[in-house]
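Task: sequence design from structure.
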């Protein structure tokens, strides 16, 4: 069985090694659309020998460009399954291959979890061997895992948390998890959001797509505390 991975990247040097380490366990191909990263992301990707496709948005976060990539990047794949995700999202199941072989469907809704940690990962293994706590988050139960040969259009909406796929679509709700590793520690998170605010495009502001990108340190710290308090071990 073949699985192809597609993602977009901008300055993800912290999570990228874990993203690559995880998906290289089972992926046939990994394709990364890089939005002109200026940290160590490109060096990490080159060392990993994955497909790198650069795209330029003049230093701005352009959701419409991201939607276009997500809705088209997978269309030439002849894999059994494709995963279209962000670089901080890991599709996880301890027996993923066998689960996918036995699923009676072609479009999977995964279980989304916001993973939480006060400290950055240090493991040389898989990140979920070290950071295991999170909480179920409905809007991260994304339609990001599907059979490309049975779907003609994915029609991801802004943020890719929802989609309107076209084809002989058979939706399957599974216990395959999406582990979202964005809240790795407070300083990293606050710095990421500061960068969001700088890069937010006029389109994002006009459409109201990036309101969350304007959260300040006070909002983020309160949210961090609230979510950390309800987190529990989600890794079997």
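Answer:
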């Amino acid at each position: 069985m073949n699985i192809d991975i597609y993602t977009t990247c901008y300055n993800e040097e912290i999570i990228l090694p874990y993203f690559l380490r995880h998906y290289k366990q089972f992926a046939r191909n990994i394709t990364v659309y890089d939005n002109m990263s200026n940290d160590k992301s490109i060096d990490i990707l080159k060392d990993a020998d994955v497909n790198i496709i650069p795209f330029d948005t003049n230093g701005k976060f352009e959701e419409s460009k991201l939607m276009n990539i997500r809705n088209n990047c997978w269309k030439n794949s002849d894999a059994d399954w494709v995963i279209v995700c962000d670089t901080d999202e890991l599709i996880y199941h301890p027996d993923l291959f066998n689960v996918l072989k036995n699923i009676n469907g072609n479009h999977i809704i995964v279980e989304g979890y916001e993973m939480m940690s006060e400290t950055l990962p240090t493991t040389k293994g898989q990140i979920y061997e070290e950071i295991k706590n999170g909480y179920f988050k409905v809007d991260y139960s994304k339609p990001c895992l599907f059979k490309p040969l049975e779907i003609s259009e994915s029609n991801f909406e802004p943020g890719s948390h929802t989609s309107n796929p076209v084809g002989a679509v058979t939706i399957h709700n599974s216990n395959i998890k999406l582990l979202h590793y964005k809240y790795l520690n407070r300083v990293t998170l606050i710095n990421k959001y500061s960068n969001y605010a700088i890069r937010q495009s006029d389109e994002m502001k006009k459409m109201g797509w990036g309101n969350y990108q304007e959260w300040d340190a006070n909002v983020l710290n309160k949210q961090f505390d609230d979510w950390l308090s309800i987190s529990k071990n989600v890794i079997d």
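The chain is about 30% helix and 25% strand.
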